[in-house]
Design a protein that fits this description.
There is one protein chain. The protein is α/β, with parallel strands linked by helices. It has two domains: about 150 residues, Rossmann fold, CATH 3.40.50; about 120 residues, Glucose-6-phosphate isomerase like protein, domain 1 (Rossmann fold), CATH 3.40.50. It has eleven helices and nine strands. Helix 2 packs parallel to helix 6 and helix 2 runs antiparallel to helix 7.
C-alpha cells in the first residue's frame, strides 16, 4: 500500500513548478532588508538554507534561528536584536514557539509561509504566503519543506528548471538495497546545504528511527569520521571538499555524492528513509512520538 509520504514525495517536482510561478507575486523579504528567519524542526533547517542563499545573492544580512531561541522581541532589560523583517516558516500555522514569537514582536514587519490558511498564523503575521497545494497528510514533512525553499530560491532569482529535472530523476530511480540495509548515515553540507544535511538526517530519524548525524563537510574530519566504516554511509549534499570521498572510503565507509541539485538529492534521501521504514515494519506517515504540529500547553 502506498503511503501518504510516498505520494507527497513524488509530487515535489510539480509543487516546485507551481512555487516558481508564485515567486514573482509573493510578498517576501525585499532586497536590502535585514532579515531574521525562524522556524522549528524542518522549518528551522530550511531557514538556515535560505539565510545563506539570500546573503550569497546579495539581498542583505540574513540570520536563521530556532523560534524558541530567537533573540527577538526582547523584554525587560534584555532588548531583542533589530531586524527590518522577520520571516516565519510554519507548515501547520499552529506551532507554539512560532506563534509566541510573532505575538511579542512589536513594530517589526512579519511575513509567514504556511500550508493552512485556517490557522492562527494568518492573523499574527502582517503578510502571509499560503502554499496550500503543498500541504501534507503525513506527519513527516517532505514536499512542503522543499516547496517553500523552491519558492524562496525562485524569489532570489534562481532558475529551478534543472532542479525539477533532477528531482524527477531522483523519484524514478530505484532505491539501492545498500542504503536500506546500512547501519548508519552521516549527512554533510557546505554553505546553504548544511541546512539540507540537517534536514536529511531528521527525515531519516523521523521516518525510520535510523542512526543519523549531520555536519558541515569540512568539520567531518574533525572527529565524526571516526565512525565511518563498513555498512555506514557518508552522504554529501552538494559539492564535496577535495579528498573527502577518498578519506571515507579509506576508512571502509560508503561515500555518496550526487551531482544534481541538492534539493533533488534530499528527495533521494526521503525515498531511502521511507524504504527503510517499510523494511523495519514502521509507518512513515505516523512516526513514533511525533505529531503534525507541536502545540504546548500554556
Amino acid at each position: 500500500m502506498t503511503t501518504h509520504t510516498e505520494i507527497e514525495i513524488a509530487s515535489q517536482p510539480a509543487c516546485w513548478k507551481r512555487a516558481t510561478e508564485l515567486a514573482a507575486s509573493a510578498t517576501l523579504p525585499r532586497p536590502g532588508e535585514r532579515v531574521a528567519v525562524v522556524g522549528c524542526g524542518t522549518s528551522w533547517f530550511i531557514a538556515q538554507a535560505y539565510a545563506v542563499l539570500r546573503e550569497q545573492a546579495g539581498h542583505g544580512e540574513t540570520d536563521a534561528f530556532a523560534a524558541s531561541e530567537a533573540p527577538l522581541g526582547g523584554s525587560g532589560d534584555t532588548p531583542g536584536r533589530a531586524y527590518d523583517r522577520v520571516l516565519a516558516l510554519t507548515r501547520s500555522g499552529t506551532t507554539t514557539e512560532v506563534l509566541d514569537l510573532l505575538r511579542r514582536l512589536e513594530g517589526t514587519p512579519t511575513t509567514a509561509i504556511t500550508a493552512d490558511p485556517g490557522t492562527p498564523v494568518m492573523t499574527l503575521a502582517d503578510e502571509v504566503v499560503v502554499l496550500d497545494f503543498a500541504d501534507e497528510q503525513s506527519v513527516v514533512q517532505t514536499r512542503f519543506a522543499t516547496t517553500q525553499l523552491a519558492l524562496l530560491r525562485a524569489h532570489l532569482g534562481e532558475d529551478l528548471t534543472q532542479a525539477v529535472a533532477d528531482a524527477e530523476r531522483a523519484i524514478a530511480e530505484p532505491v539501492a538495497e545498500e542504503f536500506v540495509a546500512a547501519e548508519q548515515f552521516s549527512f554533510l553540507g557546505r554553505g546553504w546545504t548544511c541546512g539540507l544535511a540537517q534536514e536529511a538526517a531528521l527525515k531519516m530519524r523521523e521516518a525510520s528511527r535510523s542512526w543519523t548525524e549531520a555536519y558541515p563537510a569540512m568539520e567531518y574530519r574533525h572527529g565524526p569520521i571516526s565512525i565511518a566504516g563498513p555498512g555506514r554511509v557518508t552522504w554529501m549534499l552538494g559539492t564535496a571538499p577535495e579528498g573527502l570521498a577518498d578519506d571515507v572510503r579509506g576508512a571502509g565507509g560508503t561515500f555518496v555524492g550526487g551531482d544534481g541539485d541538492p534539493m533533488a538529492e534530499l528527495v533521494r534521501v526521503q525515498r531511502v528513509a521511507v524504504a527503510r521504514a517499510h523494511a523495519l515494519g514502521l509507518d512513515p506517515d505516523q512516526p513514533l512520538h511525533l505529531t503534525r504540529s507541536v502545540i504546548l500547553s500554556p
